[in-house]
Amino acid sequence: MYEQRLAAIRRSLEPSKLDALLVTYLPNVRYLTGFSGSSGFCIISPRSQYFLTDDRYRDQAGEEVTAYRVIVSKESLFAAVLKARLLAGRTRVGFEGQYLSVESLQSLRRMFGRVTFVPTRSLVERFASVKDDSEIARIRRAAEITDKVFRKIVVLLRAGMSEQDVAAEIGYYHRKYGAEGDAFEPIVASGWRGAFPHARASTKRIRKGELVTLDFGCRFEGYHSDLTRTVAVGKPTQRAKRIYRVVLDAQVKAVEAARSGVTARALDSVARMHIQKRGFGRFFRHSLGHGLGLQVHEAPRISSMSREILRSGNVVTIEPGVYVPGFGVVIRDGGCEVLNKSPKELLVV
């Protein structure tokens, strides 16, 4: 697996006229090496690959990183690169321009004065966005755990609970059911707060008759799930039911249209046009979806501004939403094989 990923990176070096690539962004480091710790980077050249970490991760790196020569340092990792002469003879070395800090880049330039450091953009990500069977299996398992948590939360949810109470239950049951932790801070938005697309759980108490938007996911063996459902606590109004149906139909249409070869822009348009034709276009305030994997937001972005084309192996969310002042409705799944199995019809608790 890692040999194939290394081969893909190496094939990209020559067109970019790079002698080596420095990968420092931890999700990309994990994708290329298997390392799950918080300190380390890798250097990949046409004929060699090195992984560097500090002494805290000596044993962990020995277990997790098998396709690289592992260097464990008690000093600065960049100093270890210099000491081991890992960039000797290199003239053009790529780095991740989106992630490497200015301070780190300045340090590299001081230490390796003869090397030209060249910023790259999404070089690793374009390979990581296409998942293999083992990755999809991990995302599927994460989705199963989150579905199980949703079933539990629906049973617990009631008027009088605070949004923070619900968020705490989500985090607890994710771990209880086998996840490493939450994929992100759970969003619980009730009543008027549902109009905020990324509302953090607050001390507000849920009232009877309100809609509650739940947006949460978990992490399993590094891979993420992402699920959103809107639940009615008590009998919903006819207007709420109408908007919910508009959003659900938009999602169903987008899921049916999602396939390899479709542009992200066209897929976004399927859901957006449906919502717009029904008079709620100005309330759909974000892109349709995003990639899912070692990061909860990764390529491809399903957006009206995206130039990407969906490929077999992409795992994306399809999440149209309508955020009307007073309440909001959003539905999200991973797909196009729909990984989340939680019911989509409006649930009343």
Describe the structure.
The protein is α+β, with helices and mostly antiparallel strands and 349 residues long. The protein has two domains: 2-128, Creatine Amidinohydrolase, Chain A, domain 1 (3-Layer(aba) Sandwich), CATH 3.40.350; 133-348, Creatinase/methionine aminopeptidase superfamily (Creatine Amidinohydrolase, Alpha-Beta Complex), CATH 3.90.230.10. 34% of the residues lie in helices and 22% in strands. Strands 4-3-2-1-5-6 form a six-stranded mixed sheet, with helices on both faces. Strand 3, helix 3 (58-64) and strand 4 form a beta-alpha-beta unit.
Describe the structure concisely for a colleague.
The protein is 34% helix and 22% strand. It has 349 residues and is α+β, with helices and mostly antiparallel strands. A hairpin with a 4-residue loop joins strand 2 and strand 3 (49-54).
Fourth-level CATH superfamily of the largest domain:
Creatinase/methionine aminopeptidase superfamily
**Which strand order do you get reading across the main beta sheet?**
4-3-2-1-5-6
Based on secondary structure, the structural category is alpha+beta
- How much helicity do the residues have? 25-40%
From the 3D structure, determine the CATH topology of the largest domain.
Creatine Amidinohydrolase
What's the SSE pattern? HEHEEHEHEHEHHHEEEEEEHHEEEEEEE
Please give the count of helices. Answer: 10
Q: What would CATH call the architecture of the largest domain?
A: Alpha-Beta Complex
Beta-strand portion reads 15-25%
